[in-house]
Design brief:
Blueprint: E1 14-18, H1 22-33, E2 37-41, H2 45-52, E3 58-59, H3 63-67, E4 72-75, H4 79-92, E5 97-100, H5 106-115, E6 127-129, E7 150-153, H6 161-173, E8 177-180, H7 183-211, H8 224-230, H9 237-246, H10 248-266, E9 273-274, E10 300-301, H11 311-325, H12 333-352
């Protein structure tokens, strides 16, 4: 980042939004609510018209017209169009800060650096508001989408301090909470808390649809838990396909980590089946030949867990031998305190829904 102005950042009064779907229209409405003059444009003229009909901003016929005179341009296009849209917005303006709301930061920032004029990159400040909906289209937009959410700001290599400070000030003004973060770290974290849940939700809905295809009443039996878990499956599949492809490496690492945790969780269950790599079918995919492999045939039963004697009974027997015959007994008061500590941390972990480190006990 380059050095910027030391004085307090000027407020932003003129905003342009490029891409007026659900997120773009919500940003436009929130900016208008905060008192800014807003212009919006979408590559689809009908979407621009529908979005402008909600009030709060004026529709423009071209990107150039939309960004004319703007102090801030917010690019809210699908991820495959962000880099070109940002480069075009930078080229069409001389002083405007340009940001975007894509779900992936690092690849987009690199693409923008390749396509935009290097002299303009000081005005480019990537960002990602952590809000939205599984629904799409300007009809579902609302300024409340930004209320209280975290808006991650991931300054690019050439973003100047003045542009970063003005953007963060504007984010606070529209009701969100700016958090500054490195782009690679952002992509790694959202893979776990945003992208992987989308994959899991879609997979669960797909499983229910395929496994119970002959049960048309299955969704009538779905209670709140199933609806909560599969709500994200209603999201725009084209939009999410692009996001998952762009952040595939981070999602893959997160998926593998979660898979290991899942395996650990079910290791103590009975009646489990597994399919080791050596037993996994290796079909030849040919669209002209019907698939003859039953992929469930090679799953194997997990041997039942060994049955151990009651641990408390064993400890009591050793304790009695220690008291009567002076035998060894390793579970002193300190070991008992460790057990109490573990129980308390377990309850805390459950309440806070997170992993808790177990610190060493002080003497």
């Amino acid at each position: 980042m380059t050095a910027g102005a030391a004085s307090a950042p000027r407020s932003i009064e003129r905003v342009a939004v490029v891409g007026t779907g659900l997120m773009g229209t919500s940003v436009a409405l929130a900016a208008a609510r905060a008192g800014a003059t807003v212009t919006g444009w979408d590559v689809d003229p009908s979407t621009t018209a529908r979005a402008a009909a909600f009030g709060g901003f004026t529709g423009a016929g071209t990107l150039g017209r939309a960004v004319e005179g703007a102090e801030l341009v917010v690019v809210c296009t699908p991820i495959t169009m962000i880099a070109d849209s940002v480069a075009a917005a930078l080229s069409a303006t001389t002083d405007a800060i340009v940001t975007e709301v894509g779900s992936i930061m690092d690849p987009v920032a690199r693409e923008v650096a390749e396509r935009a004029d290097q002299a303009d990159l000081r005005r480019f400040v990537p960002g990602h508001p952590m809000g939205g909906s599984e629904r799409s289209g300007p009809e579902h937009a609302s300024p409340s989408v930004l209320d209280g959410i975290v808006w991650v700001v991931t300054p690019a290599e050439r973003s100047d301090d003045a542009s970063i400070a003005r953007l963060e000030g504007w984010v606070s003004r529209v009701g969100a909470r700016p958090i500054r973060m490195d782009a690679e770290r952002h992509d790694r974290l959202v893979a776990m808390v945003s992208h992987l849940p989308q994959v899991a939700s879609t997979a669960l809905m797909g499983l229910a649809a395929s496994e119970e295809a002959g049960e048309p009443e299955i969704l009538l039996l779905a209670a709140g838990g199933f609806r909560d878990l599969t709500r994200l499956a209603a999201s725009n599949p084209h939009l999410w396909s692009d996001i998952l492809l762009a952040n595939g490496a981070a999602i893959g690492r997160a998926s593998f980590t979660d898979f290991r945790i899942f395996c650990s969780a079910v290791a103590g269950l009975t009646g489990c089946t597994i399919q080791p790599r050596a037993a996994t079918p290796k079909p030849v995919w040919n669209p002209d030949i019907a698939q003859t492999i039953d992929f469930f045939d090679t799953w194997q039963d997990v041997p039942e867990n060994r049955v151990f004697d009651n641990a408390f009974k064993v400890e009591w027997e050793l304790f009695l031998k220690h008291v009567v015959a002076g035998g060894p007994f390793q579970w002193n008061l300190r070991e008992g305190a460790k057990g109490v500590q573990l129980a308390e941390l377990g309850l805390r972990s459950w309440r806070e829904r997170r992993w808790i480190d177990v610190p060493p006990l002080e003497s």
